[in-house]
Amino acid sequence: MGNHQSTSILESKKVVVVGGGFAGAHAIRHLQGKCQLTVIDPREYLHYSIGSLRASVQPGFEKNIFVSHNEAWGQSFKQGRVTSVDPEKKVVILEDGEEVQFDIVVIATGSSVPFPGKVGLNVTTSAEAEELFKEFQGKIKTANRITIVGGGAVGVELAGEIATDYSEKEITLINDKDDIIHVSFKEKFRQKAKEQLEAMGIKLILGERVSNLDELTTDGSQPCSLVKTDKGREIETDLVIHAIGIQANCDAYKDNFADKLDERNFLKVNEFLQVDGYTDVFAVGDCNNADQVKMATKAMNQMEVLAQNVKALVDNGEMIPYKEETIMTLSTGRNSGVTQFKSVVFGSLLTKKLKSQHVFIHRFWKETMGLDLKE
Ligand SMILES: Cc1cc2nc3c(=O)[nH]c(=O)nc-3n(C[C@H](O)[C@H](O)[C@H](O)COP(=O)(O)OP(=O)(O)OC[C@H]3O[C@@H](n4cnc5c(N)ncnc54)[C@H](O)[C@@H]3O)c2cc1C
């Protein structure tokens, strides 16, 4: 009886999710049919960024990484850019002035990194987005010497992808830290990744910062340009790729929640993923400050917790806390990689099966989006 009653209360509630990325996709999975759900995103597609680096190198793969919101989500999807979330009037405001009412709002606007990690928020059609990757594949193909700036997961995976398909190219990865990947991962994890890159002939320059980043174009239009580091090193290169600089997509919330932002503009949330000081405003995924390392798996796990907490909120039930868990699969191309599950580290054998071969693409289309891959 209790359960039945609480479901019907939730059914009458308008839940608006701002952002149709990985978190938004899991809102559909866990909340569609249980409440009046609307997911709003300015783009007609979900960008499967986990496949961006494969799509940077492998012609045709770009078709797999943009999934139509309309096809997957139907009536629950609304295309539009949210410019403001008003917690007093309980509306989100779109850039054309339209107001969408909510009982509960979930901010899930994610983050941006330079292309090819993610595509700009202004690229609203999948045709445009696919074209960007096709052009980029050509740039990688023609460049003999490639320098990747940034030794986090994106830089490492990209170096591995390029080296796998183009073993003859001179690839250099520069990181300002003395190691690669985030320090929260085990030393063994980072060591294995380094060994894999070096075995592929990738040159690692660690503990040096690129000092002339502003002078370098990243579109391959300056062949033979000189990348300089703060230790006086100079590297001749044909293509510079940025794999640095994650930024919060905060345009939708920065004005009304100015006092709820951390120093990098991510929304401060409590353990139940409610924005600091609010009951009916939640923030999920990359745009909040819940995790040390921002990952799609965490965004999706958070949305699962959120779905239960939204139900608990309308039902006067008990909310459950979100707990960060360490699980990371890092591919260094199609044939190798490293996985850390809690504190155990696995090498290429497992990682190749889990991720490196297909970057989870079939599972994502089928299980998360409920569609067949276009291939
Ligand atoms: C190259 C690369 C590889 C990665 N590989 C992995 C991996 O292997 N495993 C893993 O777990 N994680 C991986 N990640 C991290 C993962 O991509 C992010 O953690 C994930 O995208 C976060 O999901 P999200 O839904 O919070 O945000 P996003 O995916 O960034 O989605 C946010 C959505 O909000 C929308 N939005 C933004 N502003 C507005 C607005 N004003 N109004 C309405 N909508 C708005 C955007 O259009 C976007 O669709 C990778 C990231 C990159 C860049």
UniProtKB/TrEMBL annotation:
Q: Which UniProt keywords apply?
A: FAD, Flavoprotein, Oxidoreductase
One GO cellular component, as annotated: cytoplasm
- Please list the cofactors this protein needs: 6-hydroxy-FAD
Give the Gene3D superfamilies listed for this entry.
3.50.50.100
- Mind telling me which InterPro entries this protein's record contains? FAD/NAD-bd_sf (IPR036188), FAD/NAD-binding_dom (IPR023753)
SUPFAM superfamilies recorded: FAD/NAD(P)-binding domain
UniProt-listed Pfam families: Pyr_redox_2 (PF07992)
Give the catalytic activity: ubiquinone-10 + NADH + H(+) = ubiquinol-10 + NAD(+); menadione + NADH + H(+) = menadiol + NAD(+); menaquinone-4 + NADH + H(+) = menaquinol-4 + NAD(+); phylloquinone + NADH + H(+) = phylloquinol + NAD(+)
**Which part of the chain is the FAD/NAD(P)-binding domain?**
13-302
- Enumerate the GO terms in the molecular function aspect: electron-transferring-flavoprotein dehydrogenase activity; flavin adenine dinucleotide binding
What is the annotated role of this protein in its UniProt record? Putative FAD-dependent oxidoreductase.
Please state what the protein is called. Ferroptosis suppressor protein 1
Organism encoding this protein = Stichopus japonicus (Sea cucumber)
Recall the taxonomic lineage recorded for the source organism: Eukaryota, Metazoa, Echinodermata, Eleutherozoa, Echinozoa
